[in-house]
Specification:
The chain contains 10 helices and 20 strands. By secondary structure, it is an alpha+beta fold. Helix 1 (about 10-20) runs parallel beside helix 4 (about 85-90), helix 1 runs parallel beside helix 9 (about 270-290) and helix 9 (about 270-290) runs antiparallel to helix 10. Bound molecules: flavin-adenine dinucleotide. Flavin-adenine dinucleotide binds near residues 6, 9, 12, 30 and 135.
Length: about 350
């Protein structure tokens, strides 16, 4: 089967690696140049471990990161690792055509039969029996394939930080009195944290300044004191507005979506990456079992993945109703911006 993978991110590389292990040699098209990922901590959940094992990178990844909550048998619930190390391990030996942006799908009637890519050499057609869209939550390929997705803006915002302190733990998290969360990640290269707050604009969210942020964060999560203490600039703190995404259908004749292109979750779940890797695992297996029939492979993929992914979607805490609480009605340390 001629498979074109749109996107050389985590899921695209995992799919390519798993397919190559089955003797299928896909074309991977990635619009960014090589090495364009920024170093950042990444919490990879257990849902992705079988895919990483089959791809031959699980042991390397555990050696490069820190375990989160190992069980009695030593298996962690997640691994916290530098995203660049994850991409390097998955991409090792996988050919990727960089600076190639898919701008159009080729069609024969209702069937998608390839992509048009734009790169340093201009426009080129790449025929395919199956186009696998691993092109992230915005997924231009999903749009072009006519697979509708629902994006829901969440009712809150989030403050996140990343800093250089090497701390004594890989993970910590607490719920606040209004149901918001505050959390901490540690990995061999530093530490990071997040705190869900009211929806504000970025200027208002950052206006109280670094000292106020450090004070509030370490009061609410004392184990983060060393991590926030090492921050030196408010530029290391970022305000964002989380969204969730769901798509009813994951394939159309000749094209399939997976990873963030197919689903995205709220900040409490920590499952996006693990489920994306599980998608790649299932699709590679389905292609291996239906080497001459892309539609049968896609139907099989959706059949296997729905019972895994849909419960996470419907139970995502981000989708549940939350009581609306005024900032000034919260206990003092939980108020942001602080009022004292
Ligand atoms: C700041 C941040 C922190 C996160 N932390 C975590 C975490 O700790 N744990 C977790 O489980 N999840 C986390 N996530 C989510 C996680 O990053 C994703 O679930 C995961 O990376 C999904 O990978 P993907 O390959 O599906 O998509 P992406 O990583 O978005 O990759 C898509 C790729 O497609 C390429 N592309 C897009 N359009 C085109 C095109 N037209 N042509 C060619 N290439 C194209 C892009 O350049 C990109 O490389 C985080 C996300 C963010 C933004």
């Amino acid at each position: 089967m001629r498979v074109v993978i749109v996107g050389g991110g985590m899921v695209g590389l995992a799919l390519a690696r798993l397919l190559r292990g089955k003797g299928v040699d896909p074309v991977v098209l990635e619009r960014q140049s090589p090495g364009s990922h920024m170093p950042r901590p990444f919490m990879l959940g257990f849902q992705g471990f079988p895919a990483l094992e089959d791809a031959g990178v699980y042991d390397g990844l555990r050696a490069a990161g820190w375990d989160i909550a190992p069980r009695e048998d030593g298996t962690p619930v997640a691994i916290c690792v530098d995203f660049i190390k994850l991409i390097a391990l998955l991409g090792d030996g996988v050919p990727v055509a960089h600076e190639e942006q898919v701008v159009e799908l080729m069609r024969d009637g209702d069937r998608i039969v390839g992509v048009v890519t734009e790169g340093p050499g201009g426009l080129a057609e790449v025929p395919a029996d199956l186009v696998a869209a691993c092109d992230g939550a915005q997924s231009p390929t999903r749009e072009m394939a006519g697979l509708p997705a629902t994006v829901t803006e969440l009712g809150n915002g989030a403050l996140g930080f990343m800093g250089p302190a090497i701390i004594d733990r890989s993970f910590s998290m607490a719920y606040l009195s209004d149901g918001n969360i505050i959390g901490l990640l540690g990995w061999p290269g530093g530490s990071a944290g997040w705190w869900t707050i009211d929806k504000l604009d970025s200027e208002t969210a950052l206006a109280p300044g670094l000292d106020a942020f450090k004070r509030s964060f370490s009061t609410l999560l004392p184990e983060a004191t060393e991590a926030v203490g090492a921050l030196t600039s408010i530029d290391q703190v970022r305000y964002s507005e989380p969204r969730v995404l769901t798509a009813e259908r994951w394939w159309a004749p000749g094209a399939v979506i997976l990873g963030d292109a197919a689903h995205f979750f709220g900040p409490e779940t920590g499952v996006a990456a693990g489920l994306g890797l599980g998608d790649a695992h299932a699709l590679a297996e389905a292609i291996g079992q239906n080497p001459d029939d892309p539609d049968a492979a896609c139907a099989s993929y959706q059949l296997w993945r729905e019972p895994v992914v849909r419960p996470y979607e419907s139970n995502d805490p981000a989708r549940q109703p939350r009581p609306e609480i005024n900032n000034e009605d919260r206990p003092e340390p939980e108020r942001w911006p602080p009022t004292a």
